[in-house]
Each structure stands twice: as C-alpha cells, then as structure tokens.
Amino acid sequence: MTTKSVDVLLVGAGAMSTTLGVMLKQLDPSLKISMVERLDHVAHESTDGMNNAGTGHAAYCELNYTPQMQDGSINATKAFAINASFEVSLQFWSYLVEQGALPEPTQFINPVPHQSFVWGESNVEFLRKRFETLSVTPQFADMEYSEDHDTLKEWMPLVMENRDPNEKVAATRVRYGSDVNFGSLARNMVNFLDSQDDFELLLSRTVKDLKKNSDKGWTVTLKNDQTGEKEVYNSRFVFLGAGGGALPLLQKSDIPEGEGYGGFPVSGQWLVCKKPEIVQKHLAKVYGTAPIGAPPMSVPHLDTRVINGEQALLFGPFAGFTTKFLKKGSIFDMPKSINLGNLAPMLSVGMNNMDLTKYLISEVMQSHSARVDALRNFFPDAKDEDWELSFAGQRVQIIKKDENGKGKLEFGTEVISSEDGSLAALLGASPGASTAVATMISIVEKCFAEELASPEWQDKIHAMIPSYGQDLTQDAELLNRVRSHNLKVLGLDTVKKIQAQAETNSLQDQDTDTAA
C-alpha cells in the first residue's frame, strides 16, 4: 500500500477537473496536484468529442435558455448569464494559447455560425420576440434575423433545400459561434499539466472511500484497477469532477451540504452523417424547439462538427433512459444512490414528471426511420441510409429538495462545497463544459479564498481573465474589448478556416476513392 500527501486531489479527468487543475497551477505552480481517473484514458466519458454536442454554449441559438412567459415576454436572464460565462471561458483559453499551454486553436475549437430555426406561426412569433429582446443588448448586438426564404437559403442551404416556399419559417444567426472538441481541449490541458512539476496523473483508479481528517483535509482511498493495489492520498482539497459519477462520491464524503441530493440519468443518441456531398452543404449549428415533454437537453439541432480534423454532421440528441450514471458505468448506479436522505425527493420527482417518463420511453422505442423523420424537419431531403446511430454520453440531472421539502428536478449545473472549503463537487449537465471556467473560478473563490486575496493570485487571475471581478452584462466597452481579442486569438472571427478544412477533407476523400 502506498500513501502520499498532496495539496489538491482532482477526481475525474474531464473538462471540469482539467480546467481547475490548469487554473490552480497557473495561480500557484508549487501546488502538488494529483488527478484520478477511473478509465485508462483522459476525457473518454462525457467530455469526449462524440459524447456531447460540442457547442460552445453562448445562448446565441439555444432557445431553451430564453423561455417565453405567460404574458408573452421573453425571459433572457439565463441567456445573459450563460453568454457572459462563455466569454470567461474564451478569455481563459485565449490566455493559455498565448502562453503556449494550449496548441493551435483549431485543434480544439473551430468557427461555426450559431443559428436558430423555427417553423409555424407561433414559433416564428416567439423567435421574433426573442430576437427583439436580445439584439438590443451589447451581448447579442451582432445577432441577425430573417423570415425570407432566399436569405435563409444562404444561411442554411441544407435546411432550406426543397422546402415548401409557402412554409412560415424564421431564423437567427450569430456568425462567430463555435464548435468545441472538449475531449481534445481536456487532453491538451492534461498534456500541459504533465509537463509541470508536482503533477501526477493516476489512470485506472477507482475511489473506494473518502474520509474527513481532523485537520482540514481528506484521506482518499483508491484502488489501482490494473494491479489491485490499495493507494491512500491525504489531500488538503478534493474536487469531485467525475461527471455522472460525482453524486456517489459526494455521498461517500458524508458532508451535510450533500444531504438530499439525488440523480436522474438521461442518455443520448445522435444521427451521424459523414458523406462529403452532404456535409459540405451545411456549415452551422442549427437549433430548434424542444418537443413537448422533452427535457431541455433534448432540444433538436443539426450541427457541423469538427473532431480530430474530420468534419461531420450530427442531428439529435434523442433521449433515452438507463440507470447508469456513466456511459461506461453500472446499471446499479442509480439504485445504489438512493438513500433515506434523498428517497422522498426522488419519489416526488418521479410522481410529478410522468410526461418526461413517457417522452423518454417513446424516444427509446423509436426506429431508425422515425429518427430520420424527425431530422427531415431540419433537412427535408434526408435519406435513412445516409445516417447512422451513435451513442452519446450520460447526463445525470440533479434532484434535490425544494422549499417545501419535496423534490424538484434541475437541468443546470450546481457546485456543492463543504463549509470549510476542503471539498467541492459538481453535479448536473448543460451548459456544462462551456461554462467550466466560470464554474471553476467560483470554486477557487470559495475553497481558496485566503490565497486568492493575495496580490500574487490577484495579479495572475486578472492576467488569465481580464474581466475578472467585473460584469460583462453591464460593461459594453469591456465586453467588446475582450470579445474582439478572444475571437482573434481563437480564430473565431472568420469561417474561412473551417471551409478550407472542408475542402481539404473533400480532396482527401477523392484521393482515397481514386486509390481504391
């Protein structure tokens, strides 16, 4: 048995843990950090490229972030917050690129316009109101709107191809949206961490136990799944960033702040097309409206994706249900997570969300043809044989007690931390990795408050995040300045790069066909 002492123990090697690890190493290079991962590779669960939408969530196209109220008005509060948080992520990534800690940006982020598309009179009216609400603000001033078929053919030719010219449709567009390969981003962050002193990556390790020490710290017992050896780590701070696996670990910690939390797992599936003659007709992430009864994460969208230099189209997600908390987890994950503290909230949620249950059952029972039928709302000429099914990662939605002691289902993300700041856990799903930087900053503020107050840490965090401590939703001059810088550094101010990549892929495909 081995025993080690570290300053920080990060559980999980996905977007969240890698972001926090790099941030802490930038703030204090002398910190001893160990990262624990259950799998034998980094970022192969929810963070992996095909296991998520790859959308840089900035609320440009995601209609579920701007619900319509009973009086007909648009509630844009969440959209403003998510947009500001994504700008914080872009600042951090830009800083790391400039410092050489991240590679050339096209290895993890590419420019893809973000568009919303709706059909039908009521949906068109909603999108028009949404545009009017958002576009008058500095954050969304560059948003475009149109109901003209010819204009939309230029924006999204695949979507408008052979569409009824009399159909009532509308769309919005923000040209500098992004496609993010969060798997590549996380792996490059780990590569950087691996090059630093006092960092250790522990693959194929399972956390067996967490116990609070008397002197503000934790004893974490690991099992090496390759050798069977027991390993013990004493750490001043522990972060549980294990995606769907964070809830069982939070329960192991027994901190009072985690009492009553439960999880509702939702799986996902994509239709994928890699045919060059189809892929090259679509350069956008086009989001629509969610079906009645669907969870917000199931908003349908037709996306350009760039994964490991290869361009493809994805449509979905199609939701499903499993009791696994992780894609490579166990069917006993959900049953094992039920205890006396969360039983009542989970039963309450189950009873009050029958529409969601029925929706998930209907999604699971769909045939391939039925899924392609749904795609035809976005691509009228879609053919069954051009698309194949791919399984996405697991998302575990938060269940917790409401103000009446019953249960409520949350579709966002939430940080739970111990009162003394020695442990923090991240639960939930969307917008997830897109806002990882802002979320990790909140953990640093809570759990490293004394260090963050020092002049050294203040200087460094302002260097990483120029807008730190200021409100991007209120300061238009600051927003425009940091946005302009980020777009330039990350290559998001033009779509020419991705178009060139598409042409290169096409030539490579032609060469392969000729050789064959």
From TrEMBL:
<keyword id="KW-0560">Oxidoreductase</keyword>
<keyword id="KW-0274">FAD</keyword>
<comment type="similarity">
    <text>Belongs to the MQO family.</text>
</comment>
<dbReference type="InterPro" id="IPR036188">
    <property type="entry name" value="FAD/NAD-bd_sf"/>
</dbReference>
<dbReference type="InterPro" id="IPR006231">
    <property type="entry name" value="MQO"/>
</dbReference>
<dbReference type="GO" id="GO:0047545">
    <property type="term" value="F:(S)-2-hydroxyglutarate dehydrogenase activity"/>
</dbReference>
<dbReference type="GO" id="GO:0008924">
    <property type="term" value="F:L-malate dehydrogenase (quinone) activity"/>
</dbReference>
<protein>
    <recommendedName>
        <fullName>Probable malate:quinone oxidoreductase</fullName>
        <ecNumber>1.1.5.4</ecNumber>
    </recommendedName>
</protein>
<dbReference type="GO" id="GO:0006099">
    <property type="term" value="P:tricarboxylic acid cycle"/>
</dbReference>
<dbReference type="Pfam" id="PF06039">
    <property type="entry name" value="Mqo"/>
</dbReference>
<comment type="pathway">
    <text>Carbohydrate metabolism; tricarboxylic acid cycle; oxaloacetate from (S)-malate (quinone route): step 1/1.</text>
</comment>
<keyword id="KW-0285">Flavoprotein</keyword>
<keyword id="KW-0816">Tricarboxylic acid cycle</keyword>
